[in-house]
């Protein structure tokens, strides 16, 4: 059996790089919609889904979704919070996914989890753009310590090597896309037409056009 | 049997977004190293590899590599040049790849081509970031017209739908990474340690550090 843990940072400070295009309330709603997409991608693949956060609004929204909330207590940083959550859960295999990867639901996560479940002392990692980690599956759940921030992809690789953990790298384009900048939203318009996130952005009157210049890959406009 | 076509734009105007960090000569060498990586990723998968270009230096470098050069003649744009190249080749299945996707060699291209070869009237597409197309495999070679520029990923999808072509989408993180900005080079440092492109960047004294801020995902520095 396997569980998923979704760490969510406090809503009021999150996604500040989207300030130019979205109000605080809209950024909060965007995060909730992305969380819904991530939940949808995980729900048939995991026996339990947990959200770890220090934000009461996130925890109560999660409870409504059918996700088990883990309130953070005295945790210093993301790795500490994840460690705390990992100790709380009972399943032997755990998948860690951030809340801002809505295109994850286009992948078959159940198949990836099965791969790791079927081999003791193994892990699976999906890169994010920028050297990060957007999916980490561990069996058993404490085979390596979560080591996010910085080039976490390289840190996780090195920890697996050092601990002789069988490592599967799954280089998924969809899972690599975390949403932080207006530019990032463009990918949702191309690849995420079936997501809650896309519908919410459309509701807000946001759309996108191609731009291939030094200024970036997308033009993002709002009515 | 299948062929690959690599379109290469004139060296002197290419990769202008890297001006701040690389001289013209270095940008030319970067393109050649990326072309070498793309060639390496394709060579065991295709019976013939073609480069289509109007640049004499590219054409002669390609010939040295063992690639068949197709000089562009009176072609108006990229799509026109590709159309011209497709008509010249004899194999029934063709793979189109830009020259600036060095991480392509981390994927098993032979397996992807086989998939398309085994099914008449089929195509396979890999997205690039920004709504583009970084790999397009067609069987037969003229089943749809290449439609690059703008959101070509969506254009190719629509053409396949309209022409009832069986379409495989292969969302590869590695193939999604085309190199246009200093920022893009960061991915080579994380995922491309076995590439010619990486070795060339290291030779130039370039390295990278993590940065998670509005300014981007990587700090790129040069000694």
Instruction: State the helix count of chain A.
Output: 8
CATH architecture of the largest domain in chain A: Alpha-Beta Complex
Gross morphology of chain A is: globular
Helix content of chain A: 25-40%
Pfam families (chains A, B): CofC
Function (chains A, B): Guanylyltransferase that catalyzes the activation of (2S)-2-phospholactate (2-PL) as (2S)-lactyl-2-diphospho-5'-guanosine, via the condensation of 2-PL with GTP. It is involved in the biosynthesis of coenzyme F420, a hydride carrier cofactor.
Subunit structure (chains A, B): Homodimer.
InterPro entries (chains A, B): CofC, Nucleotide-diphossugar_trans
Topology (elements, then pairings):
The structure is a homodimer of 223-residue chains.
Chain A: E1 2-7, H1 24-42, E2 48-53, H2 56-65, E3 68-71, H3 78-88, E4 93-96, H4 109-117, E5 122-127, E6 133-139, H5 152-162, E7 166-169, H6 173-176, H7 182-191, H8 196-203, E8 206-213, E9 216-222
Parallel strand pairs in A: 1-2, 1-4, 2-3, 5-7
Antiparallel strand pairs in A: 4-6, 5-6, 8-9
Helix pairs in contact in A: 1-8
Protein name (chains A, B): 2-phospho-L-lactate guanylyltransferase
Pfam families (chains A, B): CofC
GO biological process, one term (chains A, B): F420-0 metabolic process
